């Protein structure tokens, strides 16, 4: 009989739940009702009777679910405080709910079934097997009561396996007890599951095949079969393989047969995939179309079989399966499927087959490699955007991808993987690959241009989605992959020289005014250029094609800005010329004079050539001149080539670079303009002059080299002496040019950095007041925001006045440091021996960099110290005089910036701009990466022993130990593993202040509190803490005081650890054991992830240890071991 308090409380709870679930309820009432329900679950003694009352089958589903949640809460959080009779009563009630408390299998709500299974599993986790030995028998008995109970038992067994094995949500001993008992009973569990599956599948088939079959009855059997297959999937991944292969692989046979049942094939494929892919990762996607999901699973099954095949066929002694041909044809069917996802799923398997030492030589695989290459002619074509409907693959893409941006990101990876597999196939059949590429290119050349419909073209020109462009683009990738492999894996005499020559000639004759297609033509030309080496008469034709592309235009109207596609073609042509000159300079030396005259004529006669294009052509000339191998001849050429640039850069009118106000006026940053107002041509020319001079200086310094061969360098006059270590000292033919331009370079750097001072920021006009702010493109890179999917290639590139000024400032700022960095690499000794270099860099680069914004400071550090490392190429004799005076202020500043920003995040982390946080993190990462490369033990010893550089050393120590607790795991991991102990170890030999020792150790513990939940950081930080403690604890008792403050530390364990550490007579434990002991001591410092901080703890007590059979004791003293016979002198004994 229901007591009155229980009935009254149930009535209140029902009202509260209805208020919570009613969408019309206001927020205040909903919160009050929610608070009432939560307080009831936490504090009320009526939870069990109320929960059972509310869970009755007569209640609405939402009330039943809440009642069952109450019971689950009691089991999870109050079980340890309940009396035994209360536990038994609750367990019996839960079993009664399983037996009679649900509706039929088709009518019952899935969330009711789910919470019922959770309740049962929570009790099992706390009481089985010790206090509930008959649990499995009770579950088996439940299945005899009907299909609804059978499905619930399947859900219980599945959730039990997930909690114990997959998610491991139990304490170690409880998990071990349950897993061990499951393993011991796995024979009976699998027999039980197979019997349930067999009965329901057979009943399902009989019902479906009946002339007047009952649809609902069939659905019932199908539902139970699906639940059983899902449960099997939860066990197949971890049980012994013997259970899977029992009875001549009966389970696998049944699963294969179920692939013919449309209603069960998906779940069967899931089980089959897991069984075949044991210990292999696979991607599970939640998709809508059942048939498509089935195809994915079946494809993964095939791929898993391929992995097993590659693993087994390890030698020629292994017999290749006779049905390998059928297998590869099945795999190829998925490779040629319309779905891009299915195509990509097969690539890894093809790669394994093509790379395999044994299988790759089999005729079947060789034939499939040829088929794969032909398939690439279709698969490389970029089609299937989910927003479009112009290809059959669009339908599948709309299922696989949320947007065109997602598809674009996928297609980039997909195409890269296809290219890798294509290279492997080309390696196996290089001549066939050439034939396919040649026929494809000939087809493209002879085919008319198809611009597509109005959505893929504009003004009669192609867009990126035009059919012709997608075809040309795919062919270009095939050609590049093929040529690279054919030269690697074919002897020279077998190369198809004549055929390639005809192909190249046809390509050179091909003319088009479409920039996107022309870009593909240029790529094909560059790819086929290696064949020109064997037919030198084609060189002039190739260069003519490229030079004409440098000046390519689609419009005669000079006032209309060029489209992106046109700019890309011109840039592409310049890059191709540089690439040819870089890779084949010897081949171009005989025609250097013609090349030079052609370039001079082009530079003088075509005013439309941009400064970037001019610079690229000059770099190409410098690359060829490196083959003169004559210092004086190359120097004379460089002096002649760069004379106009040097004269312009050192002219009187560029003295304006020294004064910020005059410089801003020179580039027009102090002028007020509107978007309808064009800048004066003189202002535009001034900016172009500066850009051109700097790009030429940086490019020429980068390209000018001495001969790599020592003897050739000596003979050419490039070697001027030797270092004290016997290394040659080289001279660069462009040194004099660089030295002539260096003073103004330092002046410009100094002025550029001073522009960030408040007084100079005020000089910017209203139009350009935001000129120093980060550009949108840079901002997207910092924040990881993807760029627009498809650039509008057919529209002119219009930029606002502000965007042009922002781009100019950013470009000038970066190129100045590129010029210095390139000089470090190319001039070496000549650069570092420049008189007053330290002072110049200090005053210009680091003079006022505390005002430089982070988005400008980061590229400076990256370019100058990492990419073209000022430190990496610095001779040892200049370390003290050059590096230390420069790096000290930099490290101190980074430390200051990081601490300030970290405090800002702590105080105002809600409103703080994400951009600023990312910039500081990226900046610190750059510094940490630089330090990890540069710092060596000998360098640190030098810093520690030198009083002059003590401040630098202290800045490094402070920076590294402070950075480990910043909210970035990358910084923490790199700093703790590569820097902290490397820096601190030399100082441990001396006398440190107790406060300093305490600070170092506490910093590591703080980092554990912030990052300890991450396994990688946890390991490195624990290692660092142990190194510090063991090195300094014998001399500094303060470290024990710090350790005593660690939450929940075991003082006995700490005493034992200290005893073994301090007592020289104590037996020392091994390193691994010491690590584990110290890690347990610091366990209390580990912080929780944000998602775990407010989660209520679930405590599950350990039960008595399961009975273990004692090992048989043998008296080995009385047992005959045969040792006497082994060493007996007689042969009979052996």
UniProtKB/TrEMBL annotation:
One of its GO terms (cellular component) is nucleus. The lineage of its organism: Eukaryota, Metazoa, Chordata, Craniata, Vertebrata. One of its GO terms (molecular function) is nuclear export signal receptor activity. SMART domains: IBN_N. It comes from Neogobius melanostomus (round goby). Residues 33-100 form the Importin N-terminal domain. Belongs to the exportin family. Pfam families: Exportin-5, IBN_N, Xpo1. This is Exportin 5. Coiled coil: none annotated. InterPro entries: ARM-like, ARM-type_fold, Exportin-1/Importin-b-like, Exportin-5_C, Importin-beta_N, XPO1/5. GO terms for biological process: protein export from nucleus; RNA export from nucleus. It comes from the Eukaryota.
């Amino acid at each position: 009989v229901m007591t009155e308090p229980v009935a009254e409380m149930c009535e209140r709870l029902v009202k509260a739940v209805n208020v919570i679930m009613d969408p019309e309820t206001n927020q205040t009432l909903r919160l009050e009702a929610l608070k009432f329900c939560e307080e009831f679950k936490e504090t009320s003694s009526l939870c069990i009777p109320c929960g059972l009352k509310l869970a009755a089958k007569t209640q609405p589903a939402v009330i039943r679910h809440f009642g069952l949640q109450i019971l689950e809460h009691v089991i999870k959080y109050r079980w340890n405080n309940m009396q035994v009779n209360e536990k038994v009563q609750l367990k019996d009630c839960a079993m009664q709910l399983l037996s009679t408390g649900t509706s039929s299998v088709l009518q019952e709500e899935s969330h009711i079934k789910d919470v019922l299974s959770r309740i049962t599993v929570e009790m099992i986790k706390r009481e089985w097997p010790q206090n509930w030995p008959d649990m499995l028998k009770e579950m088996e008995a439940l299945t005899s009561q009907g299909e609804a109970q059978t499905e619930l038992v399947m859900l219980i067994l599945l959730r039990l396996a997930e909690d114990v094995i997959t998610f491991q949500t139990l304490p170690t001993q409880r998990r071990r007890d349950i897993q061990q008992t499951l393993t011991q009973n796995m024979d009976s569990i699998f027999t039980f599951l197979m019997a349930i599956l067999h009965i329901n599948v057979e009943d399902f088939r009989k019902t479906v095949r009946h002339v007047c079959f009952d649809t609902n009855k069939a659905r019932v059997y199908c539902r139970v079969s699906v639940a059983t297959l899902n449960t099997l999937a939860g066990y197949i991944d971890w049980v012994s393989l013997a259970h899977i292969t029992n009875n001549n692989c009966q389970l696998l046979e049944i699963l294969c047969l179920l692939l013919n049942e449309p209603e069960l094939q998906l779940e069967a494929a899931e089980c089959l995939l897991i069984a075949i892919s044991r210990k292999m990762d696979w991607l599970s996607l939640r998709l809508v179309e059942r048939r498509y999901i089935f195809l994915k699973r079946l494809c993964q099954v095939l791929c898993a079989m391929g992995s097993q095949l590659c693993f087994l066929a390890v030698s020629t002694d292994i017999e290749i399966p006779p049905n390998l041909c059928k297998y590869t044809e099945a795999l190829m069917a998925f490779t040629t499927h319309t779905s891009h996802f299915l195509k990509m799923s097969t690539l890894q398997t093809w790669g394994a087959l093509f790379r395999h030492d044994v299988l790759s030589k089999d005729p079947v695989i060789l034939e499939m490699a040829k088929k794969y290459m032909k398939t690439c002619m279709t698969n490389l074509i970029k089609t299937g955007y989910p927003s479009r409907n112009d290809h059959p693959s669009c339908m599948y893409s709309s299922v696989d991808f949320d947007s065109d941006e997602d598809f674009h990101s996928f297609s980039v990876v997909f195409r890269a993987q296809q290219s890798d597999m294509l290279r492997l196939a080309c390696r196996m059949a290089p001549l066939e690959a050439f034939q396919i590429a040649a026929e494809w290119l000939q087809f493209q050349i002879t085919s008319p241009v198809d611009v597509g419909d109005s959505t893929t073209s504009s003004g009669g020109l192609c867009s990126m989605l035009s059919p012709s462009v997608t075809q040309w683009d795919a062919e270009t990738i095939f050609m590049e992959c093929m040529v690279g492999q054919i030269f690697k894996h074919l002897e020279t005499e077998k190369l198809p020289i004549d055929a390639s020559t005809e192909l190249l000639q046809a390509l050179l004759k091909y003319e088009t005014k479409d920039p996107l297609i022309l870009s593909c033509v240029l790529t094909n030309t560059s790819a086929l250029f290696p064949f020109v080496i064997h037919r030198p008469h084609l060189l002039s034709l190739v260069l003519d094609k490229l030079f004409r592309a440098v000046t390519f235009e689609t419009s005669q109207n000079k006032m209309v800005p060029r489209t992106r596609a046109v700019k890309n073609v011109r840039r592409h042509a310049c890059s191709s010329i540089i690439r040819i000159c870089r890779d084949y300079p010897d081949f171009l030396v005989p025609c250097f004079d013609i090349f030079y005259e052609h370039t001079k004529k082009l530079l003088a006669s075509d005013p439309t050539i941009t400064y970037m294009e001019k610079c690229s052509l000059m770099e190409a000339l410098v690359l060829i001149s490196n083959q003169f191998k004559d210092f004086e001849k190359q120097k004379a050429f460089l002096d002649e080539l760069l004379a106009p640039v040097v004269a312009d850069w050192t002219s009187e009118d560029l003295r304006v670079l020294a004064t910020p106000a005059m410089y801003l006026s020179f580039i027009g940053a102090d002028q007020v303009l509107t978007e309808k107002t064009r800048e004066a041509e003189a202002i535009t020319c001034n900016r172009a002059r500066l850009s051109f001079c700097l790009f030429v200086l940086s490019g020429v310094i980068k390209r000018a080299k001495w001969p790599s061969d020592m003897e050739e360098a000596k003979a050419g006059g490039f070697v001027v002496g030797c270092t004290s270590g016997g290394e040659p000292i080289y001279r660069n033919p462009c040194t004099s040019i660089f030295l002539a331009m260096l003073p103004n370079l330092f002046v410009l750097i100094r002025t550029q950095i001073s522009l960030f001072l408040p007084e100079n920021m005020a000089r910017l006009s209203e139009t350009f007041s935001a000129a120093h702010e980060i550009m949108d493109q840079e901002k997207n890179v910092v924040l990881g925001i993807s760029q627009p999917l498809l650039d509008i290639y057919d529209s002119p590139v219009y930029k606002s006045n502000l965007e042009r000024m922002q781009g100019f400032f950013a470009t000038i700022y970066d190129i100045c440091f590129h010029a210095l960095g390139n000089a470090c690499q190319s001039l070496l000794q000549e650069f570092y021996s420049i008189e007053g270099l330290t002072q110049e860099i200090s005053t210009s680069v680091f003079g006022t960099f505390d005002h430089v914004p982070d988005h400008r400071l980061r590229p400076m550090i990256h370019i100058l110290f990492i990419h073209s490392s000022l430190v990496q190429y610095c001779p040892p004799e200049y370390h003290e005089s050059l590096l230390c005076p420069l790096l000290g202020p930099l490290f101190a500043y980074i430390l200051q910036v990081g601490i300030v920003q970290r405090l800002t995040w702590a105080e105002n982390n809600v409103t703080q701009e994400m951009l600023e946080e990312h910039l500081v993190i990226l900046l610190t990462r750059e510094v940490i990466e630089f330090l990890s490369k540069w710092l060596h033990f000998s360098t640190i010893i030098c810093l520690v022993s030198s009083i002059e550089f003590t401040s630098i050393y202290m800045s490094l120590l402070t920076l590294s130990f402070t950075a480990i607790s910043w909210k970035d795991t990358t910084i923490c991991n790199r700093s703790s593993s590569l820097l902290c102990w490397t820096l601190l170890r030399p100082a441990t030999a001396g006398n440190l202040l107790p406060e300093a020792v305490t600070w170092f150790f506490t910093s590591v513990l703080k980092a554990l509190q912030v990052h300890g939940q991450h396994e990688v950081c946890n390991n490195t930080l624990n290692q660092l803490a142990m190194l510090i403690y063991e090195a300094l604890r014998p001399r500094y008792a303060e470290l024990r005081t710090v350790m005593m403050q660690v939450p929940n530390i075991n003082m006995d364990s700490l005493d034992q650890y200290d005893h073994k550490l301090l007592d020289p007579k104590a037996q020392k434990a091994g390193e691994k054991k010491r690590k584990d002991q110290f890690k347990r001591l610091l366990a209390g410092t580990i912080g929780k992830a944000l998602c775990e901080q407010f989660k209520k703890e679930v405590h599950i007590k350990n039960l008595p240890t399961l009975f273990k059979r004692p090992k048989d004791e043998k008296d080995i003293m009385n047992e005959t071991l045969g040792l006497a016979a082994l060493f007996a002198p007689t042969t009979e004994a052996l």
